[in-house]
Predict the structure.
Amino acid sequence: MLYFLLNMMIKILPIVGLLLLIPLIAMQLTDEVNWSFFDFIIMGIMLSITGLALGIIIKKIKYYKYRNIFIAIIIMIFLLIWAELGVGLFGTPFAGN
């Protein structure tokens, strides 16, 4: 299991790095994107955990109907947490300004 997770992290981390380049480049081009170092750390962790969860689901669940349901749930959880941290969708103390 450990080899499986390490192998998956080798595949996921470059994708996470490329996705994090999008806001980094946007910060250089416009003042509308204003991420701090902490924002990059949090999003990197969130993307890594989401990628690992999706990889485990794809590898371990063979029945496509259940696999698609679990993938949709993981993506929805990721999007809800992202929206909450960004704009405060639910008004929790973790919400952005």
Notes: The chain has a mean pLDDT of 91. The radius of gyration is 16 Å.
